[in-house]
């Protein structure tokens, strides 16, 4: 097929480019959790205020998703050029982050980071569906598997460069006035106080090295952006437009539009809650194990990598499962597994059972793995065709979920107990199961009405 069909060959190569770009996207997202304590220290801020990095990043993600969805469907820019801009811009912004020593600047740069990330995510998801249509389930699973692989590798790449607290407790680092341009920082122990001004400065000095893994990330993003500028130059988009025109016309004739829209709204809410669980678990895992269980930052990086490894394993398995099981069955199975995994994580954390924490962290990653791409598949099959706007709605919903969760979680963890990390995520997983059943009910009603309509048409033909 690759040798005989030139269009198929180009589509296949473009799919590999999409997969590589999602590897870079997962790399950036996986890097955020382990380096979050260092970024917080560089910006001289507390956990509660530092959660604004996540929140404002999701604000940018929301804006980037909406803008890219509009540009994607309106064809204001060639879609490959749009993908190139999103991926390359993502890499450039990431390179700036380790050099932002002011809290306000760090917050602003995370808005831009989120905008480019949202653009990449929207364009990648909608672009792959546009390329393959209903035939792309396995490719779609591979796309999100690549995202998980990036999440595995980036914490490992960042681990040697993160700063660890000394025996006296957690520390914060301030630029030394005489050496700040070379990355030398003065270490100050402040977390046992409520006001930074009351901190006692030690005589220890450490060099911040997180610019190294962030520079690696920039190189990866720029490298994976190159195929899209090549495809832009060879005008692959025109061939794909001809190949999918009839499919779009047929999609507009689908019956039961109101039920489909209702089902889509349900899945948007489902996606909001799901991403709140997924991103919060990965983003706050290092913070939780260091504050509640008193692990080191390096240990936090390792357990985050275990999470991403199991996450990737689940998505790799999903490439094959989509051939045998319907999206509805896969979402239900993995959702139930997630509920049990987070319950186990909660109980083992309460009793400081180290082996149990590692086991249930990996099970949580596995259980979360296929839900995100499978929601797109279920929507494509049962509710609405996944266009740029539909993809952007899903990613805006994801942004809203993650925008709400970090400030709530950080406030509960800091003001009450870090165990709220487990309490909140478990409660949200219960809500996920409720939303799944409501989506299944709407899906069954659409199927039933379609069956009744077919029966009526058969009676008319017989008469």
In short:
With 463 residues, this protein is mainly alpha-helical.
List the SSEs and their pairings.
Layout: H1 6-42, H2 47-50, H3 52-74, H4 79-96, H5 103-132, H6 137-158, E1 172-175, E2 184-189, E3 200-207, H7 211-233, H8 236-252, H9 257-291, H10 297-321, H11 327-350, H12 354-368, H13 371-383, H14 388-415, H15 420-462
Antiparallel strand pairs: 1-2, 2-3
Helix pairs in contact: 1-5, 1-6, 1-7, 1-9, 1-10, 3-5, 3-14, 4-5, 4-7, 5-14, 6-10, 6-13, 9-10, 9-13, 9-14, 9-15, 10-12, 11-12, 11-13, 11-15
3D structure, described in words:
- This protein has 463 residues and is mainly alpha-helical.
- The protein has 15 helices and 3 strands.
- The chain has helices at 6-42, 47-50, 52-74, 79-96, 103-132, 137-158, 211-233, 236-252, 257-291, 297-321, 327-350, 354-368, 371-383, 388-415, 420-462, and strands at 172-175, 184-189, 200-207.
- A 3-stranded antiparallel β-sheet has the order 1-2-3.
- Helix 9 (257-291) runs antiparallel to helix 13 (371-383).
- The longest helix has 43 residues, at 420-462.
- 52% of the residues are buried.
- Mean pLDDT is 76; it is low at 166-205, 245-253 and 453-463.
């Amino acid at each position: 097929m690759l040798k005989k069909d030139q269009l198929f060959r180009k589509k296949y190569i473009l799919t590999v480019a999409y997969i590589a770009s999602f590897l870079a996207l997962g790399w950036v997202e996986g890097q955020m959790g382990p380096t979050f304590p260092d970024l917080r220290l560089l910006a001289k801020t507390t956990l509660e205020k530092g959660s604004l990095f996540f929140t404002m990043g999701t604000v940018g993600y929301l804006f980037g998703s909406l803008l890219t969805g509009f540009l994607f469907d309106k064809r204001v820019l060639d879609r490959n050029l749009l993908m190139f801009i999103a991926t390359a811009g993502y890499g450039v912004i990431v390179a700036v982050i380790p050099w932002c020593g002011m809290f306000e600047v760090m917050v602003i740069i995370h808005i831009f980071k989120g905008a480019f990330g949202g653009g990449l995510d929207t364009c990648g998801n909608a672009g792959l569906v546009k390329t393959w249509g209903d035939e792309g389930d396995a490719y779609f699973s591979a796309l999100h598997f690549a995202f998980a692989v990036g999440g595995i590798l980036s914490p490992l790449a960042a681990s040697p460069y993160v700063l660890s607290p000394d025996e006296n407790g957690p520390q914060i680092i301030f630029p030394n006035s005489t050496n700040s341009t070379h990355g030398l920082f003065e270490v100050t122990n402040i977390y046992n106080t409520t006001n930074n001004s009351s901190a006692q400065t030690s005589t220890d000095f450490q060099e911040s090295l997180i610019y190294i893994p962030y520079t690696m990330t920039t190189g990866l993003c720029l490298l994976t952006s190159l195929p899209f500028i090549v495809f832009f130059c060879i005008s692959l988009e025109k061939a794909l437009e001809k190949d999918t025109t009839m499919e779009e016309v047929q999609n507009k004739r689908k019956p039961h539009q109101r039920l489909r829209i209702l089902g889509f709204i349900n899945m948007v809410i489902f996606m909001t809650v799901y991403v709140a669980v997924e991103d919060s678990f990965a983003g706050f895992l290092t913070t939780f194990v260091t504050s509640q269980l008193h692990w080191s930052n390096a240990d936090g990086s390792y357990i985050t990598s275990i999470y991403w490894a199991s996450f990737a394993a689940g998505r790799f398995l999903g490439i094959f499962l989509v051939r045998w099981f319907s999206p509805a069955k896969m979402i239900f199975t993995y959702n139930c597994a997630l509920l049990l995994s987070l319950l186990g994580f909660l109980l083992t954390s309460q009793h400081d059972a180290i082996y149990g924490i590692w086991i249930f962290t990996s099970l949580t990653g596995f259980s979360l793995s296929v839900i995100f791409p499978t929601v797109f598949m279920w929507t494509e099959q049962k509710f609405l065709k996944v266009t740029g706007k539909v993809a952007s709605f899903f990613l805006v919903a994801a942004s809203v979920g993650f925008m709400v969760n970090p400030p709530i979680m950080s406030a509960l963890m800091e003001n009450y107990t870090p165990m709220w990390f487990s309490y909140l995520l478990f409660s949200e997983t219960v809500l996920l199961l409720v939303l799944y059943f409501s989506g299944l009910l709407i899906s069954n009603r659409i199927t039933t009405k379609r069956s009744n309509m077919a029966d009526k048409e058969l009676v008319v033909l017989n008469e």
